[in-house]
Specification:
38% of the residues lie in helices and 18% in strands. The chain is of the alpha+beta class. 37% of the residues are buried. It binds adenosine-5'-diphosphate. The site of adenosine-5'-diphosphate has 15 residues, from helix 2.
Length: 638
Amino acid sequence: MTADVRKETLGFQTEAKQLLHLMIHSLYSNKEIFLRELISNASDAIDKLRFAALADPGLLEGGGDYRITVDLAKSKKLHTITISDNGIGMNRDEVIENLGTIAKSGTAAFLENLTGDQKKDSQLIGQFGVGFYSAFIVADRVEVHTRKAGEDADQGVLWESHGEAEFTIEAKPRPTRGTSITLFLKKDSQEFADDWRVRSVIKKYSDHISVPVMMAKPPAAPKEGEKPARDAQVEYEAVNAATALWTRPRTEVSDDEYKAFYKHISHDFEDPLTWSHNKVEGKLDYTSLLYLPRKAPFDLWNRDMSRGLKLYVQRTFIMDEAEQFLPLYLRFVKGVVDSNDLSLNVSREILQQDPAVESMRGALIKRVLDMLAKLAKGDDYPVFWKEFGQVLKEGPAEDFANKEKIAKLLRFSTTHTDLETQDQSLENYVSRMPEKQDKIYYVVAENFKTARHSPQLEVFRKKGIEVLLLSDRVDDWLMNHLQEFDGKQFQDVARGALDLGADSDEEKAEQEKLAKESEALVERLAKVLEGRVAEVRATSRLTDSASCLVVGDFDMGAQMRRIMEAAGQPVPESKPILEINPGHPLVKMLDQEADEDRFADLGSLLFDQANLAEGGQLDDPAAYVARLNRLLLQMGKD
Ligand code: ADP
């Protein structure tokens, strides 16, 4: 194949163009990160080559001394910084694809979310991961000269852009494999052609990178009486420590180094919330370094979000996003796992079946849950919960074995505080339970307000029994799998007959009396509402409201029903139970109503109201309005 020698001008993909523009304007106050991003990419490119060379040593073209080189040049007119690597390199198509488009799914949605407020946007961009385009924060022109490992010198490619709408691409031979990126620095960013400045940034961000980052040694000062040497060979020296951070003993790694390493692997801007670094020896032999981010990534709810750990085998990079080591409900964890048990030529398929991976997975899950339990004792847990609580709620369904551990990490709103902030643990709840109470009560509704004002809560409030207020989408699902905690069953307050377990004999007798007295009314109502309800019954669960709906013991909850219906899934037919409050004036009035039409209107109204109060939708809103108006008009006449 001969190289395409034409110089072509191509346009950036719309999203790439938008992101470029935004980045230049919102990351202005944090310029130096471009160096971290470009060195990070260079190190990834070397990791990829190292891995590919395991199968095809020819790719090394005789040279396996991996290095990243940073060169600076200053003239009157131009200041440049060039970052070179002898990694995998790119061919023409890859350059166009990688540097002209953004492959992350959900990018368009992400961009729509930006506010125009620089401070906020720069944080969002941080979660998105800035990468290569950050070069344009400091440069008004960028050249990328690259050649893929294993290909001929004349397959080299030169990419060039001013970071606006277009880039050009042409053939340019390159004898050595890898990539060089030259930044023509803007007037206000010329500091990045200064040796001391660049060294300090590299130290700060890239010390942990396992390949050496080389810079020209500053020329030695001429000795007394000697002329400065001209044309002396430039000598290079490593600026970073160049040992993989996770291989160092914990005691020798500073917090700042851990944080910098996190930013390297996660492309996150912010510091992590916490981390856990462990070396395991014995039956299994591996090292893991796991981080909890402080902010959810923009694509946390995308099915194809990038997740998983960076996998190394005996310090050789094997793959990004090895998903087999952690379950979905811990998909927010970032980190590295380096195994001495796996073979260097493992593939994703092998990972899925390998018993060593299975054991590591079990141990890593435990590490994360322990890390969370530790975090839960400190002040940062609310930060974690706000960002990732809903994901963790998927845990009990996905990971039965660790259900109890996960349950301890869950946080809820409850009637104890009536606050929307989910900050109460089940242990808190249980510690407040009166002796006689044997269940953990909860209500599920579409949103917090509806949950909090649920008529079903009235008797619980009256008796001072705490109820969990659930309104997240996963909550019904969660409760289906949680079932019990600390030996206590969970009980949906809107499900089945009311059983407070703490009722005295007197109260029970009172309830029976109520039921007896309401028998006739209940029968009349059941007739009027036939086909709409499964049953009508008198209840003592209401104090202020006239009526409420409950579901049968084995029927699907109202929230789950709505979610499934919204998703277009078939939902089994089931009708709610209408419970009425015999002590309520409206119900008393109904009992006295002799006119059958008026009785039917009032009865339907009680049913519709109960539906509305729990955030449900009326089957026939127009009929509801007509009924209500009839009754209002009659009120005027009476
Ligand atoms: P990310 O690194 O998050 O994928 P970037 O915008 O930084 O996003 O880079 C896009 C892609 O360009 C990378 O995934 C990689 O395939 C390629 N790339 C960037 N820098 C290099 C490099 N120095 N050598 C080889 N490929 C590179």
